[in-house]
From TrEMBL:
It comes from Antribacter soli. It holds the Pfam family Abhydrolase_6. Gene3D superfamilies: alpha/beta hydrolase. It comes from the Bacteria. Keywords: Hydrolase. Residues 3-218 form the AB hydrolase-1 domain. Coiled coil: none annotated. One of its GO terms (molecular function) is hydrolase activity. This is Alpha/beta hydrolase.
Length: 228
């Protein structure tokens, strides 16, 4: 199965370099997606530009692909599902949840000169980064791509309720499946509360398992592909 891989904030497509061979060894065709504004120097990129890039990869896929979003890009993956519900086998959300209609995509940190730079490790102390050593943290920070304001402050627009029919797998790295279920039940994740098929999968990792647990993450993605 084709597996589309969408990295979260500050990541370019190379974030999946360690996951790609693991998925290939499991018989799948991984497709890391290069997002406008995250690696190509296009600081004027918008959320719509990123959605268009994901949809182009989806339309070029063989058969019905699995769409994988990480962190903030869980919303980006969900936007693609909303736009093409009939063309998606399933969606995997790693370490995050999709925003609902009308929310700003990722208005999370200070915007400086039209971009949202990586804010440093302070906001991610604890379970998010516990499995990253100092060398890995330094490498991440050095490679982090500032996210264009037009992406971070883009408005999420959802329209097709057929998205709720698409199977969802939530990969729980820095939080547990029980916590995720509590958040869904409490109404904190209204999109998943309405989804008809949601599986919660535990993964012992921090917020960036593509770097620290690539083989284990690939096995989880392959399992989601089988289920889809």
């Amino acid at each position: 199965m084709d597996i589309l891989l969408i990295g979260g904030l500050w990541l370019d497509a190379s974030a999946w370099d360690d996951v790609v061979p693991e998925l290939e060894a499991l018989g799948h065709r991984p497709v890391p997606i290069a997002l406008p504004g995250q690696g190509d120097g296009a600081t004027s990129a918008t959320l719509d530009d990123q959605v268009a890039a994901v949809l182009a990869a989806l339309d070029a896929a063989s058969g019905k692909p699995l769409v994988v979003g990480h962190s903030a890009a869980c919303t980006l993956a969900w936007l693609a599902v909303d736009a093409r519900p009939e063309k998606v086998a399933g969606v995997v959300l790693i370490g995050g949840f999709p925003w609902d209609d009308g929310k700003l995509y990722a208005d999370l940190f200070e915007i400086t000169d039209g971009v949202m730079p990586f804010p440093g490790w302070g906001p991610f102390e604890g379970p998010d980064s516990a499995d990253l050593d100092e060398q890995a943290k330094d490498a991440f920070a050095a490679a982090a791509v500032p996210v264009p304001e037009g992406v971070a402050r883009g408005v999420v627009r959802l329209a097709d309720e057929r998205r709720f029919d698409v199977p969802v797998t939530v990969v729980c790295p820095e939080f547990t499946p029980a916590q995720a279920q509590q958040w869904i039940d409490a109404g904190d994740v209204p999109e998943l509360a309405r989804a008809k098929h949601v599986d919660l999968v535990d993964l012992d990792a921090g917020h960036w398992p593509m770097f620290t647990r690539p083989a284990e993450l690939a096995v989880v993605l392959a399992g989601a592909a089988r289920s889809a």
